[in-house]
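Re: the multi-chain job from yesterday

Posting the exact lines I submitted so nobody has to dig through the queue logs.
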Amino acid sequence: MTEKSKEIKQKKVNNTEEQQDILTPWKLVRRKFNKNKIAKVGLAIFIVLVLAALLAPYLTPYDPYEMDFTKTNQKPSKQHLLGTDELGRDYLTRILYGGRVSMKVGLFAVIIEIIVGALVGGVAGFYGGWIDNALMRLVEVFMSFPFLPLAITVSAVVGVRVPPEQKMYIVMLIIGLLSWPGLARMVRGQILSLREQEFVLAAKALGIRDSKIIWRHLIPNTVGYIIVSATLGMAGAIMSEAALSFLGLGVTPPVPTWGNLVQNARDIYVLKNRIWLWLPPGICIFLAVMSINLFGDGLRDAIDPKSR
Amino acid sequence: MLKYIVRRILHLIPVIIVISVLIFGIIQLAPGDPVGANLDPKATAEQRQAERERLGLNDPIHIQYLKWAGRSIKGDFGDSYIYKRPVKDVIPKFMWNSFLLNIVVYLFAFAISIPIGIICATKQYSKVDNFWTVFSIIGISMPSFFFGLLLIYFFSIKFKIFPINGMVTPGKNAIGFARVKDILYHMVLPAIVLTIGSMASLVRYTRTSTLEVINQDYIRTARSKGLEEKVVIYKHAFRNALIPIVTIVGFQIPGLFSGAVILEKVFIWPGIGNIMMDSITMRDYNLMMALNMFFALLTLLGNLFADIGYALVDPRIKVE
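And the result, structure tokens for all chains:
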């Protein structure tokens, strides 16, 4: 969406100058991306998963929370393609709705990460001095926490007070607020190096205002990086949510997510005899993370060929 | 150089202080009264009050922090509620179990990944390179717990080659060589999961850093002098390609440990990750705080090693 609107905007600018079809930066990116088959496959798989989650109510006649005690622990059949769980809920439905939760958590965690990371990195890079120093020290502190141990601690301490239906928001916050430092560092580095480049110097020499330099020259040059790390960050966030929920410290039942559905396999009996209860959600996590990674890598190669 | 190291270490002190404040603060948010943990539920109000006083819970929060920090520096993290023993006596045993697993993984991962990464770089876009690229993508995207479950399903349940979980066969109190064999036998599956997980990123990393070097002018000069390709790659290119890899050596240490948390739970490996999860389910706050500090210090140490290593191998690095 943003890509398109930007393109249109830039096209308008170009059209007023000359009628010739000029390759805008985003058009160039798209052209390069389209040549990358693997990245396109990744995007396609991801779109399928997103559609499956969005269209869940139309794809299945069951409700993910509706229990039926006459039909518990059923094997896969025509009525229930992936069987039912111990409370008689249709398992395929739970996986479809679980995908909704998993992807929602991933998306919003990344949005939080981007907002905090870009803000901290941008402010630190642009203002420098003691502000930069203080913020970077903060980044260092956050980077010194290994993610998983701290996330499970926070989740255990804060999460117990929250009802299951709202746990997903806590998980988003935990993942988002613990994963911004990397992005902040990168944005800061970008802004710092851009500030010293000739085109900024030229802009300054032409007497262009500081605010215009920031908005027209510095920010657009970092957007590519931010989009790429947002994409790859979402893969990471989905993985983190799955890990937390698998441990029982993320989103908890009855709300389904791919991670807590795999948790069924911690019972050796289920692991051995009801493979359909843990294999499909596990494969979903794997496919989602892989497709986003493929797409993100392709995007990075298209946006910044130097980074390879 | 020494000056640089000393400065780097001094630099860590404020970071450690902030981290300890944060960890202490997070644990204070925990619900429940720590008094209840050790007392008989039928204790009278006076007994509770006495216990509060004994634990120092009536002090203002900053005094509580200072007391905790003061004791922690001396290595006294209080008693573990689960094990009814001082935390400092509980952690080492489990820590060694984790170290054992991680050291094996660490050595294997580096020994395998670096040569593969270099080969991939020298034969860019060949079949070998493509195979390992696919391998890396799959390895990075595979959740470790799911991979662990798959291995258990196939190798422990279907084909019964390896034990399902644990570190030693229960009831088989083997000693000496038999014990070593038993532990190794239990270690295979978790080690495979962790090794493949870290290989995925290491191969990619080595490949990229080697490629970067190979495309530089001095390599072209070396080739045009008529040097053998082997000499060019392993003598000229490898040294410079090694620089970024050295950093990763440091960064991998904490990464492995924290990744092992979830895997130890899957394989019930009696390591630090497993007691971390236990401390959380049983609300053993003293143990929880100590373990969090342990993980944070480990990360700081890893970063320190990375920086020092970087400065050692690359003389161009500014030692300010």
